[in-house]
Write the structure tokens for this entry.
Amino acid sequence: MPELTVDTLREQVAACTRMLVMAEVMDYSGHVSARIPGTDRFIIQPRDTSRFALKPEDLLIVDLDGKLLEGVGPAPSETALHQWVYKARPDVQSVCHGHPPMSTLFTVVDRPMVPYATSPSASRMCRFMPTRRTSARMSRDRLSPRPWAPTEPVCSAPTAP
């Protein structure tokens, strides 16, 4: 398989972002990023660009310390979430952080969000979906020394009535 170029990754991240907007997984917030293979860098969209009209040339290159290396920023405040995933999991090549309306609703009403699986193999992957108990923005100042670990309890698995 040929190695991905930065230009190809830019095209893929921009196209993926636009598709997720059309599928209503993302709207005015949320981001897709992609690790640039063989580097400590990744591609992510700027904070204030339209997700619906995102073009490859709009994308930024950021390092794993969150420093903007290329592009016209600023980088989104959630860049830290992406960089921490890449630092913790060198095998991860892409991260998608979205705010789908229905899943966001479950975090507000304090009810468990039980995944629906159409096959036995899919149902083994997750018995419940953890949610963050606060709508406060996540920032590097609020997270634990292991930033990819939750800082507060997440919802527990649903219990029988």
